[in-house]
Amino acid sequence: MMNMPMMGLGTFRLKEQPLRDSLLQGLDLGYRHIDTAQIYDNEAEVGQLMSESGVPRQDIYLTTKVWISEFGQGKVIPSLELSLEKLRTDYLDLALIHWPSPQDEVPMAVYLEQLAEAKARGLTREIGVSNFTVAQLKQAIDILGPGAIAHQQVEIHPLLQNRKVVEFCREQGIAITAYMPLAYGKVLAEPLMQQIAARHGVSAAQVSLAWLLAQNMAVIPSSTKRANLTANLAALELKLSGDEMTQIATLDRGERCANPDFAPAWD
Length: 267
Known about the structure:
By secondary structure, the protein is α/β, with parallel strands linked by helices.
């Protein structure tokens, strides 16, 4: 089973030419981790571009996420089968629950047990969740048992460090993928990030990514420009000092970018 590459290609809000620019250039540069979701409405395009790229399917770590409309009894597996059809593959590397069911409209056991069944059937190699609070993670573990939840994908960047969730995931051996790792560019305007970047001769974006990577989190930034895609990959080689890591940690101010009206009561 392929390990998730720490640097991935996020596809949120990308379609048509921007998606083509991102995926084909990214795969050409050596990216091997693609993140999509049913609600992004781009799975069919992602599948087409993966096929066009010529990169063997087994060399790509592919994640998609089940949308909240597909949580009801008997719906999760058909929705994933449709995702697989669109993505032109017979398996996912990781299938996630995109958000917990709003106000527990669908009981968590209903959709998580279907997700576990999807894994048992070979539709996905690993399963996990996204945007779950500590209380919801505990409930998920109670439902499926320790070790069943392989990943949690959650918003993390220097301005929102989600420490309670991160600490709990580490205790439970749940891997973390940090989405919106640049906070829509807000991180890049921070003087501290710019100072550290200047010291290393890199960009503030690379510093933010390196800071997350140093904490053993996968990251899925989104870019359509070859120069930025190349720079993001180079962040894998950037080593920050202990002092720099500590300084960046002081930037946490709970500044959340993804907070829809159906979001859970955050930690």
